[in-house]
Amino acid sequence: MLKARGTWIWWAEAFLLLALVMVSPSAVLSQQDELAAEKEDQANAGAAPKLAGVRLKVALPITGTVDTDVKQSLQKLLSRLTDKDERPVVILELDGGPEGQSRGSEFERSLAIARFLTSKEATRLKTVAYLKGPIEGHAVLIPLACEQIVMHPDAELGNAGIDEGSISNTMRHAYEEIAGFRNVLPPQLALGMLDPSLEVYRVNDRRFVNGEEYAQLKNDGQVATSEKLVPRGQMALFTANKLRQDLQLISHVSENYRQLAALLEIPENQITQDLGLNRDWKAARFVMDGEISNRMVQRTSLSMQDAVTRGVNFMLIELKSRGGDPVACENMVNFLLGLPDTVHTVALVTEEATSNASLIAMACDEIAVSPNARLGGEGIYQYTEQGRADLENYLAKISIEANRSWSIWGAMNDPDLKVFRYERPGTTLTKYLSEREARELQDAKQWKQGPEVTQAGIPLQLTGTKALDWGVADSEATSVSDVTRRYGLPDELEIPKQNWAHQFIEILASPGLAMFCLFIGVIALISEFKAPGVGVPGFVAAMCLGLFFWSRFLNGTAGWLEAMLIIGGLFFILLELLVLPGFGIFGLGGGAMFIAGIVLAMQTFIWPSTDYELDQVPYSLGTILVIFSGMIAAAFFAKHVLPRTPFLNQTMLDAPDDEAMEEIRRRETIVDLTHLVGNTGLALTPLRPSGKAKIGHEIVSVTSDGDMIEKGDKVVVVQVRGNYAIVRSASQ
């Protein structure tokens, strides 16, 4: 029994030893693989740190609660950071504007912001001052307190003491302290901006000293080269080019945020957002669901405009569309880009925004997408070859204002536009550009073209995940609450209700009412021509045609061209009826102009060239049918109804019956003038073209056959019609 037990123990130990021998190498290899993967992740993380950028606009002038608002905004950002986060880049935008809005900034409040920016707490942030326009007054303290200064080419910096009658020692010490902490601009130069009693020199190219220090250095023979930068009696005011190219004190000059992103080596989509960290948001929600039409755009833009007047500064636009009318989409883009800077727009795409509906998202300040959303690609509208060229030029024009690269958005609608991945060697920056946009970059030589990301003949379509990875979209959101939660707003935002004025405009813009107004207007217009002088049909015609054109204008399909065609057509028709009867060309041409204006007012194109435009043709043909139906109805009304209508029947003469016609002919033949044909005589009155003439011994009514004949000229009778003769000048 013991022997058997020992045998089993021996076999167990042998089996355990064998298992350890087999498992240990795989365990070691697995551990090595995990370590290698971890090292690779660390290497990748070290090679490609993802920087975050936040843009904060500082209200100018710095008065009231501006200092506390800025500090609270920065503190709110600091509270979000963890120990593992990289230092976010905070761009403090100061826009002096053309009228010097920075003047009037209070010294204490400006100094409070500057001291916070130089505090130990703010070392977690990389601060960059971006100056647009002239920055004067004590607002100068803010760029002095930042780690980096970037200026717009038109910006200026200086005249810090412009609002002060005298400069106190407290101010001098403050400017010297703030400038000395960062040393972006030398303290002596900062004092030269503040105190007009100082002189500032640049000595030996890189040293800046005041007048007393300059005199001492010159006496000691330490001055090789010198330049007086600030004369006594003036405050320093430097342009961007002076500070960058000549003095080499600021890091960059940038025209827009796209250039600024590239200069700071930050992904473009990380810097385009104005998060407004501590703003008091008043929000509204708008839904654009279905085909994009002029009617939808007009309704949405009117609601947005009304919201702005009510103080709304946050607009969430839910996009669920496969595109639509290109003119309507373009109008919506222009409207969004034209909103005030104080209004923050967010496009939310949870399902799809394909074809040219994607352009509406491009025009928003922020694009939030769900991972499975579809952005771009085939939709309702396909651009023609000329349309794609026009679209490319349009996107290139608005891209600066939209602060977005345009190539991706162009490729979403143009299957022939090639987009490539571009990289900037030595950095982790990437862009997705067409060759045209790449050539137009200011630093084009610093970007290297990579592989093509588009497929020939297929419009580019991105999922939400890829749009986020490529920097096309800015944030991820699967619902309205995902967006509102980030801004401290209620989970669900109410959609503004239309007021009575908007509802009335909506009714006017309906095609049915437009057709009705056109039909009645044509009937009334022809009735006025049949019975001139009454005014009632003319008034009705003016009202109906005016309502028709207004409804088409509100719908976005009518403009100055259509108005000129309609008004010009009516003018030539009246000219034909009242001034030049019987000639024909003015009447026919005026009628053609009138019909062309009406048809064009019903559509956004002149000649259909795409499937979408062909679908609109029936409406145009229906317009022509309505016009001719109105003409027929007007003729019937004038012949059968108007003569039997009280009061109106007095405005028209009944057609003479057979007996009346015979009486008219009898009266006209009472005087027989046929014997005068071929005889000559004298014009007793000017013939222009009718008048009196003496033929032989008879004085008769005559009419010139074309030329104007003066009084006393000899005339010859060429024809007789009833009781008057037709004459021409005897000299012919």
Can you give a write-up of this model?
- With 732 residues, the chain is an alpha/beta fold.
- It has 4 domains: 53-197 and 233-270, 2-enoyl-CoA Hydratase, Chain A, domain 1 (Alpha-Beta Complex); 283-417 and 454-487, 2-enoyl-CoA Hydratase, Chain A, domain 1; 500-558 and 603-644, no CATH class; 658-729, Beta Barrel (OB fold (Dihydrolipoamide Acetyltransferase, E2P)).
- Helix content is 44%, strand content 17%.
- Strands 1-2-3-5-11 form a 5-stranded parallel β-sheet. A 5-stranded parallel β-sheet has the order 12-13-14-16-22, sandwiched between helices. The chain has a 5-stranded mixed β-barrel with strand order 23-24-25-27-26.
- Helix 19 runs antiparallel to helix 20.
- The longest helix is centred in the N-terminal third of the chain and has 46 residues, at 2-47.
- The N and C termini lie far apart (158 Å).
- The model is unreliable at 1-6 and 15-51 (pLDDT under 50).
Which SSEs are present, and which pair or pack?
Elements: H1 2-47, E1 53-57, H2 66-80, E2 89-95, H3 107-117, E3 126-132, E4 134-135, H4 141-145, E5 148-151, E6 156-158, H5 169-182, H6 187-194, E7 200-203, E8 207-210, H7 211-219, E9 226-230, E10 237-239, H8 240-246, E11 252-253, H9 257-264, E12 283-289, H10 294-309, E13 314-320, H11 326-337, E14 344-349, E15 352-353, H12 358-362, E16 366-369, E17 374-376, H13 385-402, H14 407-411, E18 420-423, E19 430-433, H15 435-439, E20 448-452, E21 461-463, H16 464-469, E22 475-476, H17 480-486, H18 500-508, H19 511-530, H20 536-554, H21 560-578, H22 585-601, H23 611-641, H24 658-668, E23 680-683, E24 690-695, E25 698-704, E26 714-721, E27 724-729
Parallel strand pairs: 1-2, 2-3, 3-5, 4-6, 5-11, 12-13, 13-14, 14-16, 15-17, 16-22, 25-27
Antiparallel strand pairs: 6-10, 7-8, 7-9, 17-21, 18-19, 18-20, 23-24, 23-26, 24-25, 26-27
